């Protein structure tokens, strides 16, 4: 049955899993609540899928895998484009669901949903353009590779950008002929279920795309462990990523991981400080700091630190924190009580490890019951303290003054993470020199992170393996087959009689 949303009442109904083209409750009948983080109130009950439900979804995806593999690339691309149109037609409802379930403020959720068709279209466009290669070999032989799909792919999704992160991996998986089982995060399953309706309306064959809702340790672990799953894409915490890798190892599945970060925003002495402050605030306050690439370590050159901090305070004073459906909100709540408690415990820790420079409390006037925190900044932060080392995943930044490039590079690289860096300054030689020396998967110079389907995204070190997006993402959803044909008569090509084996 179709998922329905009542925005005024902030309730949704008929949240059902999507398996083999049909709607279903959990086989064992269980469910769990998903809440509106603006209020803490329940929006809907979501099926608590378990390993038996995962088995059904994987069986469906396996049954149709060969047919889907041999559907023309152009045919697969046409379905992805039809889906893009469905997303555009239903953008308002998708955005409201996403805002309600995840805490993105409505204007941001609309922007994010507006971007989904661009991802679908990009991967539709390259479905028939990326292939194998021919290889020069000795003798009269033709040697070439085919890029073939993996088969059934699993997509375990986090709660921070539920729709976008699901689309960025399922779009290339489908484009290159894989079938899909999605496990959304338990805090934010609703937009995936709505999206599944659109997949069906767009005309995808039953079984090609499935969604199993449920807890990570139940449905998620069962999916990662399933022997018929050939590829797993996961975005989320480094801890869970390691567990998924171990489950995948038991059946030798290919794994793509986009994990945590502790990314630096570097301000050089020649930076435009008004712009630098704007980018820095985007960096640690965007989606209330719940962003893998969040710029939570502010490396500000000692010569400009005081001026930067003055401007930062003025900018943060203007940041409007509140209900995501209220006009003018720039920062909504954290996604859940669990994240709220976690972020607040780091803020308490920061008060003992460093100096609280800004924020640290509950923003004035925010709705009772919602998971709101103030933008928070610490100074006098030792680079080896826990608030400087660990991913907090809230709007919490630490300030680290620096003087020489060597000192800066050493401090930035002294991290288990290596996801992303922002560099803000004018001297291009210095900027590019630092960009080369940082151990990170992406560097943005004089701009804030902008995710695009055509640029590879992922991490070094414990921030991940493999790359989402760009042509690089093709490797996550394909495997190589080498084919060679001898063009000479067999006897003439080789003197088989007496040839050594
Ligand atoms: P998590 O990494 O445990 O959850 C992400 C997804 O993994 C969810 O769908 C969850 O159901 C699933 N999952 C959990 N345990 C699993 C298991 N054993 N096997 C298979 N799937 C499993 O993240 P969580 O606990 O919600 O958040 C904790 C921290 O993780 C955050 O504070 C943040 O530091 C980090 N995180 C990072 C994200 C990123 O974009 N890099 C996104 C979400 C969380
Ligand atoms: Mg929710």
UniProtKB/TrEMBL annotation:
The active site is at 258. InterPro entries: Ald_DH/histidinol_DH, Ald_DH_C, Ald_DH_CS_GLU, Ald_DH_N, Aldehyde_DH_dom. Coiled coil: none annotated. The keyword Oxidoreductase applies. Residues 23-483 form the Aldehyde dehydrogenase domain. Pfam families: Aldedh. Gene3D superfamilies: Aldehyde Dehydrogenase, Chain A, domain 1 (3.40.605.10), Aldehyde Dehydrogenase, Chain A, domain 2 (3.40.309.10). Keywords: Oxidoreductase. The keyword Coiled coil does not apply. Belongs to the aldehyde dehydrogenase family. This is Aldehyde dehydrogenase family protein. It comes from Actinomycetospora endophytica. The lineage of its organism: Bacteria, Bacillati, Actinomycetota, Actinomycetes, Pseudonocardiales.
């Amino acid at each position: 049955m179709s998922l329905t949303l009542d925005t005024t009442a902030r309730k949704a109904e008929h949240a059902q899993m999507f398996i083999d083209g049909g709607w279903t409750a959990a086989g064992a009948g269980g469910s769990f609540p998903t809440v509106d983080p603006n209020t803490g109130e329940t929006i809907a009950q979501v099926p608590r899928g378990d390993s038996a439900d995962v088995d059904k979804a994987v069986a469906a995806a396996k049954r149709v895998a060969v047919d889907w593999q041999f559907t023309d690339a152009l045919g697969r691309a046409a379905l992805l484009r039809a889906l893009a149109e469905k997303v555009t037609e239903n953008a308002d409802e998708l955005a409201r669901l996403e805002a309600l379930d995840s805490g993105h403020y409505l204007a941001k959720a609309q922007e994010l949903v507006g971007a989904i068709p661009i991802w679908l279209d990009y991967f539709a466009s390259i479905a028939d353009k990326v292939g194998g290669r021919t290889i020069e070999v000795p003798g009269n032989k033709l040697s070439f590779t085919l890029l073939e799909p993996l088969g059934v792919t699993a997509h375990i999704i986090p709660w921070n950008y539920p729709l976008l992160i699901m689309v960025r991996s399922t779009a290339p998986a489908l484009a290159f002929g894989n079938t899909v089982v999605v496990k959304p995060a338990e805090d934010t399953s609703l937009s995936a279920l709505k999206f599944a309706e659109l997949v069906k309306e767009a005309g995808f064959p039953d079984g090609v795309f499935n969604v199993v809702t449920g807890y990570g340790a139940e449905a998620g672990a069962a999916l990662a462990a399933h022997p018929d799953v050939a590829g797993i894409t996961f975005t989320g915490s480094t801890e869970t990523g390691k567990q998924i890798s171990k489950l995948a190892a038991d059946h030798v599945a290919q794994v793509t991981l986009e994990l945590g970060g502790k990314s630096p925003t570097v301000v050089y002495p020649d930076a435009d400080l008004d712009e630098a402050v704007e980018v820095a605030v985007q960096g640690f306050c965007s989606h209330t700091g719940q962003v893998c690439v969040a710029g939570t370590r502010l490396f500000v050159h000692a010569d400009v630190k005081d001026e930067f901090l003055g401007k930062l305070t003025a900018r943060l004073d203007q940041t409007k924190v509140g209900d995501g459906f209220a006009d003018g909100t720039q920062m909504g709540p954290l996604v859940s009580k669990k994240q709220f408690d976690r972020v607040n415990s780091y803020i308490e820790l920061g008060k003992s490890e460093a100096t609280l420079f800004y924020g640290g409390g509950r923003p004035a006037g925010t709705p009772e019951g919602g998971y709101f925190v103030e933008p928070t900044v610490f100074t006098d932060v030792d680079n080896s303290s826990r608030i400087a080392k660990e991913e907090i995943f809230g709007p919490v930044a630490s300030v680290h003054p620096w003087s020489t490039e060597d000192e800066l590079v050493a401090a930035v690289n002294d991290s288990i993470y290596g996801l992303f860096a922002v560099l803000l300054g004018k001297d291009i030689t210095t900027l590019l020199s630092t960009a080369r020396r940082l151990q990170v998967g992406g560097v943005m110079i004089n701009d804030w992170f902008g995710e695009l389907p055509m640029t590879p995204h992922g991490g070094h070190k414990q921030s991940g393996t493999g790359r989402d997006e760009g042509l690089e993402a093709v490797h996550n959803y394909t495997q190589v087959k080498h084919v060679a044909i001898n063009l000479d008569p067999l006897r003439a090509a080789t003197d088989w009689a007496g040839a050594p084996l």
